[in-house]
Specification:
Blueprint: H1 11-15, E1 24-25, H2 28-37, E2 41-46, H3 51-61, H4 64-73, E3 75-80, H5 85-99, E4 106-110, E5 116-120, H6 134-147, H7 149-167, H8 179-191, H9 208-217, H10 220-235, E6 249-250, E7 258-259, E8 262-263, H11 264-281, H12 284-300, E9 311-312, E10 315-316, E11 319-320, H13 328-335, H14 339-346, H15 372-389, E12 397-398, E13 401-402, H16 403-420, H17 423-440, E14 441-442, E15 445-451, E16 454-458, H18 461-478, H19 481-498, H20 531-546, H21 549-568, H22 574-584, E17 588-593, H23 600-608, E18 614-618, E19 639-644, E20 647-648, H24 655-664
Parallel strand pairs: 1-3, 2-3, 17-18
Antiparallel strand pairs: 2-4, 4-5, 6-7, 8-9, 9-12, 10-11, 13-15, 14-15, 15-16, 17-19, 19-20
C-alpha cells in the first residue's frame, strides 16, 4: 500500500512511495504531528540518481520488520535534497559536525522542534565494516528518547548553538587583494595529479571552478594543469564516449571507471570549461567535447516544455553502469567485422576493466597517431553503437526541472552558441529562458521546481542568481534586451529578499521561513558555485551592462563579507575568487555598432578569444542602454569600440584590428 509520498511530484520521493515505512514529505502536517506526539523525526535526505540511496532503500526501507520499528518510534520524513537545498545544507553541516564527513543518503534524527542530535549517511541493516546496523541504531535512539529525553534535547540544543556559531562570519573590512590568487593557485599546484590530471586522489571529481580560475589567472605551467585535467577527463570513462556528457565522478584516480550518474549542473559547468579551453587554445578537440555534451543535453535531457531535466541514474536493471559498459561480443553483435577497430580504439577487452568482464569505454590506450580515415570511420561506428545502446534499458531519469540548474544550463547553451556558432544552441537557450519566465517566474517570485506541468517551492538564492546570470549570457548571445531586463528584475528581487545589508552577502533563504532553524549564508563553493558566488557574479555583470552602482556595491559587499574566509581557505572559495578576479580588473566593454547582419565578423572576433573580463553588447539591442551612449551607428559601416574604465579606444572596423586591441588589453 502506498504511503504519504504517493502524491509527491519528486521522482526521488515517488521511488519510496511503496515502502512499508510510513514516510511523510517535509510539510507542516508532518512537523506538527511530531510535536503533538512528542516523537523524534527521522529525516532521510537523498536524490533520485543517488546509488547508495537505492541500496539503503532495498536493504532497510523495504524491510517490513525494520519499517515497523521506524514507524512505531519516529516520524519518518523523506526530503529530495534537490528540491530543498536549504534543509540539505543545514543538516549536512550537522552530520559533518557530528561525524567529520557527509554524503547521501543522509540520515539525521531531530527533536520535534527540528534540532538535530544524531546523524550519519548510509547505514547497513545490520552492523558491517565498522558501521552500526540501522535496526540497532533505531532501537537505541528510541530507548534514549524514552528514558532520557532531557539529555537528548540538551545535546540537540548544544549542537544547534554550534551550527549557528559556524555560520557567523568574521566580516572583512574590504575585498581581498591579488595575493589571494597566488594562494589559491599554490594550493591547486600542491594537489595536482601530474600523471592523470585533476586535484587530489580517488574518488576524483571534476573541479570546474579550479579550471576556470587557472584559465583566468594561472601561469603557463598552471594552464597545462588545467588542460591536462580536461584531456584526462575526456580520455577516461567519466566521459560518455557514445552519448556525450560527463558522469558525476570517477571512483579511481585516472578517470577510468565513473560513478555513472549524470548531473545537469556538472555538465553545464564542464561545457563552459571546455568552451573556455577552446577559446584559450583554439584546439578543436575542446570544441568537439563541448559540442557532444551540449548535444547530449538537447537529445536526452530536454523537457518538452522547454526546460532541462536534472539527472540520469547510475543504475539500470538493478546494476550500476549496466547501460554503459560493453563486452567484445556485444560490440561485435552490433558492428560485425569492424568491432576490432572499435574495441582497440575504446579499450574494450576480453578481460574488461569493470564488473562482470565488461569494459567502460575510454581512449587512454589509443595510439597517438590514429589514422585520420579510421577516426572518421569511428564516428560512424560510435553512432551505430549508440543507437544500439539506446535499445537497452536506460537508467532512470529525474525529469524535474530546477531553476538554478537550468540557469547554469542556460549559460552553457548561450555560450555554446557564441563560441561554436550553432543556432541549435541559441534556440535551446531561448526555449529554456522562455520556459523559466512562463512557468517559474510568477507574480514577481521565482519558483524552484517544475515537473509535469506543475511548479512549486519558492526559489532560493542560488535559483535567482543562476537564472539572472544565465539571462545575461543569453542577452550577449542574441542581444534581445528583454533578457537583460528580466535579469535585472530577478536581481532586484534577489537583493530585496536575500541580502544582508548590515554585514554583506546573501542568505540562502528568504526571511520568515518557518520550517528552518535559522538562515544560512552560503559561501563555500562545492560541486556548484555557492549562492553568494552566483549572486556576486550576476550583480557584477549586470552592473556593467546597466551602469548601476548599487548592483556593483552589493557584489563588492559580498566579496568583502567573505574575504577573511577566502584568505583562510582559498580552495573552498574558488568560484568566488574568480568573481573577485572580475571585480579587480578594470571594466572592459566591447560595443558593436551597425546593422546586425554587418557586425557578424566583428562579433565573431569578439567571441573568438578568451576574454572573461569583457562585456559584449550591440547598440542595436537598445540605444538607450548606458554602454551605448555616444556610439551611434554609421550607415553601412560596422564598428567596434573597446572601452576600459570609461575610456574608449578609437573604433575599429576590421576584425584583425579588433583582435589586436583585445590582445593588448588582455591579461
Amino acid at each position: 500500500m502506498a504511503n504519504r509520498l504517493a502524491q509527491s511530484l519528486s521522482p526521488y520521493l515517488l521511488q519510496h512511495a511503496q515502502n512499508p515505512v510510513d514516510w511523510r514529505p517535509w510539510d507542516a502536517a508532518a512537523l506538527q504531528e511530531a510535536k503533538e506526539l512528542d516523537r523524534p523525526i527521522f529525516l532521510s535526505i537523498g536524490y533520485s540518481a543517488c546509488h547508495w540511496c537505492h541500496v539503503m532503500e532495498r536493504e532497510s526501507f523495504e524491510d517490513a520488520s525494520l519499517a515497523e520499528v521506524l514507524n512505531a518510534h519516529f516520524i519518518p520524513i523523506k526530503v529530495d535534497r534537490e528540491e530543498r537545498p536549504d534543509l540539505d545544507d543545514l543538516y549536512m553541516d550537522a552530520v559533518q559536525t557530528l561525524t567529520g564527513h557527509g554524503g547521501w543518503p543522509m540520515s539525521v534524527w531531530l527533536t520535534p522542534d527540528l534540532r538535530p542530535f544524531y546523524g550519519g549517511t548510509y547505514f547497513p541493516p545490520n552492523p558491517r565494516q565498522g558501521l552500526p546496523g540501522f535496526r540497532q541504531l533505531l532501537e537505541h535512539i528510541a530507548k534514549l528518547w524514552k528514558e532520557k529525553p532531557g539529555d537528548v534535547r540538551d545535546q540537540a540544543a548544544e549542537l544547534t548553538v554550534e551550527l549557528e556559531r559556524q555560520t557567523r562570519l568574521a566580516v572583512g573590512a574590504g575585498v581581498a587583494d591579488d595575493g589571494i590568487f597566488q594562494s589559491a593557485l599554490a594550493q591547486l599546484r600542491s594537489s595536482f595529479d601530474a600523471r592523470w590530471g585533476g586535484f587530489g586522489g580517488a574518488p576524483k571529481f571534476p573541479q570546474h571552478m579550479a579550471i576556470d580560475l587557472i584559465l583566468r589567472r594561472g601561469t603557463e605551467a598552471d594552464q597545462r594543469m588545467a588542460l591536462r585535467t580536461l584531456d584526462a577527463m575526456w580520455e577516461g570513462g567519466v566521459f560518455d564516449h557514445l552519448g556525450g556528457g560527463f558522469a558525476r565522478y570517477s571512483v579511481d584516480a585516472r578517470w577510468l571507471v565513473p560513478h555513472f550518474e549524470k548531473m545537469l549542473y556538472d555538465n553545464a559547468q564542464l561545457i563552459s570549461c571546455y568552451l573556455s579551453a577552446f577559446q584559450k587554445t583554439r584546439d578543436e578537440k575542446y570544441a568537439a567535447i563541448a559540442r557532444e555534451s551540449l548535444d547530449y543535453l538537447l537529445r536526452d535531457m530536454g523537457d518538452e516544455a522547454g526546460g532541462i531535466h536534472s539527472s540520469e541514474d547510475a543504475d539500470s536493471e538493478g546494476e550500476e553502469g549496466k547501460f554503459y559498459a560493453f563486452t567484445p561480443a556485444e560490440v561485435e553483435a552490433v558492428l560485425g567485422a569492424e568491432a576490432p577497430l572499435f574495441c582497440e580504439a575504446y579499450g574494450v577487452t576480453p578481460g574488461g576493466n569493470f564488473e562482470h568482464g565488461t569494459s567502460v569505454l575510454h581512449v587512454f590506450d589509443r595510439p597517438s597517431e590514429f589514422p585520420s580515415d579510421q577516426l572518421i570511420r569511428l564516428d560512424a561506428l560510435r553512432n551505430k553503437l549508440r543507437e544500439a545502446r539506446g535499445r537497452r534499458v536506460r537508467p532512470a531519469k529525474d525529469d524535474k526541472v530546477l531553476a538554478a540548474w537550468n540557469g547554469l544550463a542556460l549559460s552553457a547553451l548561450a555560450r555554446g552558441y557564441q563560441v561554436l556558432e550553432d543556432p541549435r544552441y541559441l534556440q535551446a537557450a531561448k526555449a529554456c529562458a522562455t520556459f523559466i519566465e512562463r512557468e517559474l517566474w510568477q507574480n514577481g517570485t521565482l519558483l524552484r521546481v517544475y515537473r509535469q506541468g506543475r511548479a512549486h517551492t519558492s526559489g532560493f538564492l542560488e535559483d535567482y542568481a543562476a537564472v539572472a546570470n544565465g539571462l545575461v549570457d543569453l542577452f550577449e548571445a542574441d542581444f534581445a534586451v528583454h533578457w537583460l531586463r528580466l535579469s535585472e528584475r530577478l536581481a532586484d528581487r534577489l537583493r530585496e529578499q536575500f541580502e544582508d545589508p548590515a554585514e554583506g552577502g546573501f542568505f540562502s533563504t528568504m526571511a520568515g521561513q518557518k520550517d528552518l532553524l535559522f538562515r544560512q549564508k552560503p559561501g563555500f563553493d562545492n560541486a556548484m558555485p555557492s549562492g553568494n558566488t552566483l549572486a556576486a557574479l550576476a550583480l557584477l555583470r549586470l552592473s556593467r551592462h546597466l551602469d548601476r552602482a548599487d548592483l556593483r556595491a552589493s557584489a563588492e559587499h559580498t566579496l568583502a563579507c567573505f574575504a577573511p574566509w577566502m584568505k583562510k581557505a582559498p580552495r573552498a572559495f574558488l568560484g568566488l575568487i574568480s568573481v573577485l578576479d572580475s571585480a579587480l580588473r578594470a571594466p572592459r566593454e566591447i560595443v558593436l555598432t551597425g546593422a546586425q547582419a554587418e557586425i557578424e565578423a566583428l562579433l565573431r572576433e569578439a567571441r573568438h578569444g578568451f576574454y572573461p573580463q569583457c562585456t559584449v553588447t550591440w547598440t542595436g539591442a537598445d540605444p538607450a542602454l548606458p554602454l551605448h551612449a555616444g556610439k551611434a551607428a554609421l550607415p553601412g559601416q560596422p564598428r567596434a569600440f573597446v572601452c576600459t574604465n570609461n575610456t574608449c579606444a578609437a573604433p575599429v572596423e576590421d576584425p584583425t584590428e579588433l583582435r589586436r586591441l583585445l590582445l593588448q588589453t588582455s591579461p
